[in-house]
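seq as requested:
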Amino acid sequence: MLQLQAAGATSTDDLHPAEHCLDGNPETFWLSTGLFPQELVLSLPSPTRIVAVHLRCCNVKQMSLQHSTEEMPGGFTELAKSGNLEQRSFVGVWKCIISCRFSVTGWSCPVGAI
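struct tokens:
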């Protein structure tokens, strides 16, 4: 199991903070508020090889998955992009990832079960 932590979110609802997308509970989720795009940044304690990212979303027009190999989240590079999704798996082999950024364009978006 990966030791992810929510390193930041562009917005959040007090009842549905970004940390909810990592708690393993399918009944909880991150809810973004405000204008789009919205972003959620997840960080790992050390460089990690990732082979898949699984998402459950609601009312998402488009999402991109980006990664960073920098110690502090930054300098992101796009790994994958998808549109009109409810459930989506991004599959690949990505090495030395320290942070992942999910950039969402669309309506309200609960993201969970990462």
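The chain has a mean pLDDT of 76.
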